[in-house]
């Protein structure tokens, strides 16, 4: 698989990465429209007693406008809430001290738009996963050629079981006896470190 077009999610889930990890090129665009009730501004982590959704608040109701025009609401204390949640969830994880310093500075910045935040988060996550392909920012994805179009496919509505992208491969998580699949990519990074990419490659549904 050479080129894959995707939505620019916030700290994407494992289904997202299993779908793109073998691609030679990932295509994204700031002109793609914001969708409510999507992964564009939320991700899921595992706390001691529950699965927690971390959401990035945005300004206004935000009808369908380009992601680059969606402004983050910095009047809310969401950055500290996220950082505190991540520390609570993964502070004792084997690779927390190694990977957290890459994420914290991104959280502490005020990004011009949701697009800018998500792009920086995706870039660092791909670096930590040792992704060997490239990311291309396109003006209009509808004018590009690609092998797989994943836009609009990976969403909180429905489950990964209904799609044909991700087959969970269990790894050791911090809390609970049962494996919780398809959390944020930071779950697999903090828990498995350098093994994360191998696990994602094994998670590709064929």
TrEMBL record:
Domain of life: Bacteria
Database matches in InterPro entries: WbqC
One Pfam family cited in the UniProt record for this chain: WbqC
Annotated protein name in UniProt: WbqC-like protein
Organism listed in the record: Algoriphagus iocasae
């Amino acid at each position: 698989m050479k080129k894959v077009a995707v939505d620019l999610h916030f700290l994407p889930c494992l289904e997202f990465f299993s779908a793109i990890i073998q691609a030679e090129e990932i295509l994204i665009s700031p002109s793609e429209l914001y969708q409510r009730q999507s992964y564009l501004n939320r991700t899921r982590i595992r706390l001691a007693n529950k699965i927690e959704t971390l959401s990035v608040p945005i300004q206004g109701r935000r009808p369908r406008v380009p992601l680059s025009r969606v402004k983050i609401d910095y009047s809310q204390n969401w950055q500290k809430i996220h950082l505190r949640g991540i520390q609570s969830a993964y502070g004792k994880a084997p690779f927390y001290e190694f990977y957290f310093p890459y994420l914290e500075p991104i959280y502490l910045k005020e990004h011009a738009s949701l697009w800018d935040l998500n792009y920086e988060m995706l870039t660092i996550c791909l670096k930590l996963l040792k992704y060997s392909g490239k990311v291309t920012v396109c003006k209009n994805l509808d004018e590009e050629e690609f092998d797989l179009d994943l836009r609009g496919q990976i969403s909180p509505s429905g489950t990964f079981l209904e799609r044909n992208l991700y087959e969970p491969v269990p790894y050791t998580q911090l809390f609970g006896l049962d494996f919780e699949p398809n959390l944020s990519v930071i779950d697999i990074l903090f828990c498995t470190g350098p093994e994360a990419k191998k696990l994602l490659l094994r998670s590709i549904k064929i």
